Structures are given as C-alpha cells and as structure tokens.
Amino acid sequence: MAGEVKRLGAAELKRQLHDGGEIALLDAREEGVFHARHLLLASCVPLGRLELLVDDLVPRRGTRVVWCDDGDGGGDGTALSAARRMSALGYGDVAVLDGGIAAWEAAGYRLYGGVHVPSKAFAEVVEHEAGTPWISASDLKALIDRGADIAIFDSRSYEEYHNNSIPTATSVPGAELVYRFTDMVPSPDTTVIVNCGGRTRSIIGAQALRNAGFRNEIMSLKDGTMAWHLAGFEVVKGATRRPADVSERGRRAAAEAASRVAARCDIRRIDKATLAAWQGETGRTLYLLDVRTPEEYRAGHLAGARSAPGGQLVQETDAHIATWNARVVLVDDNGVRATMTASWLKQMGLNDVAVLADDGSDGDWTSGPHVPRVLGLDPDAAAGASIAPAALRDGLAAGRMVVIDLDTSRTYAQGHIPGAWFGIRSRLAQDLAKLPKVEAIVLTSPDGALARLAAADLAAAAAGTGATAAAPILVLEGGTEAWTKAGLPIETGPSHMASEPVDVVLSARERGVGREEAMREYLTWEIDLVNQMAEDDDQRFRVVAG
After folding, report:
1. How many CB atoms lie within 10 A of CB 116?
2. Of the candidates 101, 114, 65, 72, the residue with the CA atom closest to the CA atom of residue 86
3. Given its phi and psi angles, is residue 259 left (phi above 0), alpha (psi -120 to 50 degrees) or beta?
4. What is the pLDDT, as a whole number, of residue 381?
5. Distance in angstroms (rounded) separating the CA atoms of residues 448 and 386
6. Alpha-carbon torsion 213, 214, 216, 219, what sign?
7. In Å, how far from its chain's centre is CA 439?
8. Quick one: which of 16, 68, 22 has its CA closest to 46?
C-alpha cells in the first residue's frame, strides 16, 4: 500500500489548490501541534481520530485528498500513515505533501498559527472592508451603568455563554440573530451590541444584522468578553437568558431581511428534487447541513443532514467542511437561518452553496442526534476482548487492572473513571510503558468505538513484530458512557497522563496561570490576520457589505 501513496511537491499542491477542482487538504497531527504551524486551507484530522472524523469531513471516496505533517527529517510521519489508512478505507485519490509543511515554507509559502484560521481571518477582513462599527468594553460598561436603551446579544453557543458572559446579555447564537431580532428589539432606537469571547462572532453577528437592513445602531463589542475580563469588569457565570419563540410577525420580518441578503449575495434556493439529483451525482461532494440550534435538530431534522449550527459553522468552517469547491446545501425550517449562513460561506469562498426550501412537512424528517459513521470498525473485532463495567470496577478495586481513557484531554480532565490514565491513540504503543504493571489493560472512550480501534492497532502491531504484550488488552463494553450509566463513580482533573496532552488547544479562558497574558496574545494574533490575508493568494474571501 505504501507504494500507492503519491507524493506532491509544494508547487504542485499550490497549483491544485487553485485549479478549481475539489480538494481536501488534511493535517494528520494533533491539534496542539497543528496549532503551532500549518497551512491556511488545511483541516486538522489527527491520525488517532481519523476513522471517527473523515466520513463526515470527506464524504466522497473519490475526492482528491492531500495529507501533510511536520515534514521529512523533522516530523513524525503521521501524514504517510494517515494516507495509507485512508486508502485502505476506500479513498482512491490520496497523496501526501512531500517534505510536509517545512517544504511548503521553504518554497516561500506562508504558514499560520492558531486554529480555525480561515474563519477568524475572514471576520477580520469583514470588519476591515465593511467598516463594522465597534464599541469598547469601557464604553459599554458606561452604557449599562447609566441604564441606556441597549440590548447585548452573545453570539456564541449557549454553553459558552452560560460559562461566562457580560451582565444583561442574552444568548443568541450567530445564525439566530436575524431570525429573532424583530421580537427581541421592538424599538428602532435601541442600540444593539453583539459580543462573543473574542472577535470573530462579534463581528460576523453585528455585520449580519447590518447586512439584513435593520436600522438600529448596531455594533460589535471590541475583543468580546476577553476585553471585558481584562478591563476588570464582572464576568457572569451561569447566565440563562434566552429569547422566546419567534412570533409570526418576527418570522415575516426575518424572511424579508433574509431575502434582501439572498438577493445581494446571489444565494440559490433549491427544492427536494434538485437535492435528490445532487445526492445521486458520484462525481461531486455534497455537504447537507442543518444550521438550526442543536435542540431543534435533535427534535426533528431532514434525514441525512448533519447538525452544524450556523454561528458555529461560520466560526469553524474547517471543522465541518474539509473539501474545497464542494457543494454545500443548508437547511432549516423556513430558510432564514440557512440563507444568512449561506451568505457568509459564499463570501468565504465556498461558491457552490444553496439553501433547501423544506419545512419538514413531507415526512422526510427524523429525530435524534447525528451519529458519525466510524470507518474501519469491525463489529466482531473486540467480541472476545471486552469487559463489562461491573467487572472493571472489581478489577480496579483489586489492583489487577488499569484503564486508559482515549477521549480528549479536555474531556478527560472534566471527568473520567477513577484512576484512569489519559492516552492518545496514535501514541499509545510507546506510552504503555508508563503504566504500572497489572494483569490487564482496559481501553475506554466515550462510546467504546475509539477504544476498539486502538485495541486493533495494538494487536496488529504485536502481530507484526511477534512481540508479546506486557498485559492483555481489553475494551470497556459501551465505553465510559456505559460506566456512567451504570451509576459508577467519576473523578476529575488531569491526574494520570500517559500521553502529553497535545490533542487539544485550550482557550485563553481555560488556562490558569497566565490567563490574562494569553488573552492579550490571542487578540493581537487575531487582529493581525487581516494583514496576513492581504499577502496570501490562497484565501478566497469576497466581502459583500450591507
């Protein structure tokens, strides 16, 4: 299989990124490593989580795919491993960037730090080109203190808002702003401020309302809740303000506003017959995304659609859509939120975007969460090497077993089986040596799927070398979810780290020591992206100001 993986030079990859054809540029490194330096248009798909992510991110098996990593001589070889694995999963056009990101940089091309850079850079370009007005934290505090006629809308997810917010703010995730505006702001004299944690969703949210034609004074909060925190103002924890259901008058006003944006941005609306025809085309990638709230999605959604709440989709487009030049169809229940989200995706350079005209009345809708398809998972592979939660409890109590949790280090710290060690699947073989000597090693992950994949990795590695494992490898039946459903205890904190926690990037607010300095560094980085975009021909932004 190794000989079948093509190698592309940096100049050839550059050409392919500009030839108009579909291409998915994937980075096989862990997010914490990716965060330091990466290509602008790359999506982070860590080798250890590839099978969990790639079907959603690259749904068409014939898509042109290029993997990259640190590069030969200084990298970890993950790109080649990922390319081989992806080929084995049925993808037919897979290559690696020869020499990795080091070769890209040596060719004179730009690298970026951070995550979700295309989305964050786009917002900076929007503010620069559209002249989106902003207000400082100190000036907003003065308005609040004197009881001015203002409305503050937090455009992040409800969970982020609930964790930390500005006094009097209401949770209105980005795609909901235009949809709910008329009911929330009955007076044209009310000043509206849109905030997020930093800058991106504040800018996009405020500009969305301006593009929609609302006549209020509308501004973003400059630097968001980070600026509010750095100014020493109160940050609210546990806020619960949410808007009421949209009235019929509100729906009509939102539909009129969205139609203005659709005309300005040339947003196409399609019917179910067109969608069915597109779904039948094997030569094009199609993403079908539901941009409503997660609660609405779970209550009922179009069969085959994935949940991608509009504000989050614009904030982290690379985590939902990895194939450039693919088709994207957005769906909601009346077209407003889909149209507003489509307008931003199109301005970001995803040109083939359409809105599905479908209200869910024809019986094609289903309910429940989206369950990603895990590739390469043999349903019978772990049948003889699993353990039930109760048996694991007894084994741990007797000191005969040790658990490795393969969830993210962030989630591991929030709660894991008592005594469990954190591990990264792609680094597990070398990190097993850090564990205490026991009779059996038990792997777990949220639902057990990743643990089963890791167990298969270890078995294959042992078979390839002829080595005998230090202890049998078992998989927890049903994963950590089964453990918690059984009423068994959970502990918190990063207590046992077999692998270095490079799998996630903690936000500035999640950090302890140095939090304020991290906030300042992040805001400086974000603001400078507009200057970097002016010198990079890979970005595809075309801003349409209201």
Report:
1. 18
2. 65
3. alpha
4. 53
5. 10
6. negative
7. 39
8. 68
Q: Which amino acid is at 209?
A: L
Those residues whose C-beta lies under 8 Å from the C-beta of residue 333, and which sit 6 or more positions away, are 292, 296, 359, 360
CA 300 to chain centre: 22
Supply the pLDDT for residue 282.
95
Give the tokens for residue 427: 């680094």
Residues 60 and 287 sit within 8 Å (Cβ to Cβ)? no
Chain length of the chain: 546
Question: Torsion angle, CA of 517/523/526/531, rounded to 10 degrees?
Answer: -100
* pLDDT value of position 131: 97
CB burial readout 51-81, b (16+ within 10 A) else e:
bbbbebbbbbeebbbbbbbbbbeebbebbbb
* Helix, strand, or coil (residue 6): strand
- Count of CB atoms situated within 10 Å of the CB of 270: 15
pLDDT score for 473: 94
pLDDT digit string, tens, across residues 444-496:
999 999 999 999 999 888 776 554 556 899 999 999 999 999 999 999 999 99
375: number of CA atoms within 13 Å, CB side? 20
The C-alpha atoms of residue 511 and residue 410 are separated, in whole angstroms, by: 11
**Taking a C-beta distance cutoff of 8 angstroms, is the pair 55, 67 a contact?**
no
**27 phi and psi angles, rounded to 5 deg:** -110, 125
Closest-CA residue to 24 (of 51, 59, 69): 59
Query: In the chain, count of helices (H) and strands (E)?
Result: 22, 23
DSSP assignment, residue 71? -
For residue 271, what are its two tokens? 């019917």
